[in-house]
Amino acid sequence: MSIWQAAILGLLQGLTEFLPVSSSGHLVLMRAYWETIPRDLLFEVTVHLATLLAVVAYYRHDILAIFKGAITGTPSTCAGMSTRRWLGLIMLGSIPAAVVGLLFRAQLEATFSDGAGAGMRLMATGALLFSTASIAATRRSVSAATAFLIGVAQAVAILPGISRSGATIATGIWGGVEREQAARYSFLLSLPAIGGAFLLQVFDVAEHSVALDVQRLWPLIVGFVVALVSGYFAVPLLIRALIRNRFALFGIWCWIVGIWALKYFGR
To answer: Are 46 and 212 in contact, with CB atoms under 8 Å apart?
Structure first.
């Protein structure tokens, strides 16, 4: 993998991991289009770590408050809810993706080589985003039932082409959750999901004894830095779109890419 290819893939990972357009779907399509780029486990581990750190950096105050409340037991709040409640809701919402990811990993892996399938799922993501345009804004907090449904949406979004942020935030909006809090919960919920995917990929790298040499080092560094920086700035971009009721507009991009993928890979 060349440095400029690593930069493009890192940018795709950083932006599309948090913008509601499916990072996995875009990476599947990019790899299928660039047939000269084989799947690189070490690179995937590197950019996943970058996006994990991007969320940690952006929501560091919330994360520290939640952990401090859990460890010390001192009553405290974060964005209008107790930190203990936040932790409980994050744990509850993480269950579906953990179960699906562990039980159906082999079946899910097969979907990462299907460009046409990713295109169809991008079309579905676009339709889901469009569906939120007519939902009136509310100030309701995340409930336990809504948290679990958002977790189910996150589990479905393991499939490439289904946006994790898009599916989880849209589910929160449909559940009447205040939009900025739906985004906050979605991004905090992404930490166990991205962290779990990162650990599984680390085990894969160790199992396949992936070698690291100087020639491969620079693309990894470039991909990591680009994914970290672009991911950090993608989070507030999405939040602004939510506040201005422009979340559904990302569906246009999903449909454009989805239609292209169906025409290119479906022939």
So the answer is: no
